[in-house]
Amino acid sequence: MTDIRPISVVVADDHPIFRSGLRQLVEDSPLLEFAGEAADGEQAVELCRERQPDVVLMDIHMPGTNGISATRRILADLPSTGILVLTMLEDDTSIFAALRAGARGYVVKGSGPDDIIRAITAVAAGQALLDVTAATRIASFLQPDARNPDHPFPSLSTRERDILDLMAAGRSNAAIAEALALSEKTVRNNVSNIFTKLQVTSRSDAIVKARRAGLGEPATLSRNRPEGHPGHRQADSSQSSKHA
Prior knowledge:
Strand order of the largest sheet: 2-1-3-4-5
Shape: elongated
Distance between the termini: 88 Å
Number of helices: 12
Order of helices and strands: EHEHEHEHEHHHHHHHH
Number of strands: 5
Structural class: alpha/beta
C-alpha cells in the first residue's frame, strides 16, 4: 500500500498566538505537514519560494505587504499553490479581493480544527472553497443596481455612486464621510469596491473616468441623491453660498 504524502502547509499571520495555534493544528494532523510560518506578507512570499508548499493559510490583514498582495506574488511564482485566506465572516470586500487575487477559498477565524483541516485538504485537491452564504454575498456585491440602469456606471451601488461623485468633485475621504454621514472606514471600503468595479488601480484613474462620464459637477452631486440625503443638503448649501 502506497503511503499518501502529507499536505505541506505554510501559516502566515501577524498574531503570534493565532499563528501558534494554527501551527499546532497542522503539526497534530497526520494529513498535514508544517512547512513554516510567516508574520507578514513579505515573509510569506519568501518562505513559499523556498519551501514551495501545497497550501498557504494566509491572513488578509498583515502589516507591510498584506495577504492579498502576497497571494498575487506567490501565485505568480507558484501557480499550483492553494491559498486559503483567513478572514472575518462579514469582511466581504476583503474576501472578494482575495478571490480576485487567486485565493481558492477562505476560512473564518474562529472555525473549528476539523473545519480548517477539511478546508486545507479541499484546497490542496484543487477545489474552490466558498460556501453558499459567501457566494450569495459576492453575487450581490457584483449585482448592478436595477433602480438606475442609465447611470454611466450601472455596476455601482447607490452609495458607491454617491462616493464616486464626491471623489470626482475633489473631496477627500474625510470630507466624503462627513457629507454622507459615514465613517471613514466605510468610505475607504467603498472606494476599494469602486476601484474593483471600474477596473482601475488608483484614485486618480477613478476620478478621470468619473469626470469623463460627467460626474463631479454640481448638478450630479444633487441629482444622484434623494431628498433628505446628507450629501444632497450639502450640495444645495454649496450652491446657495455661491449665489450669496
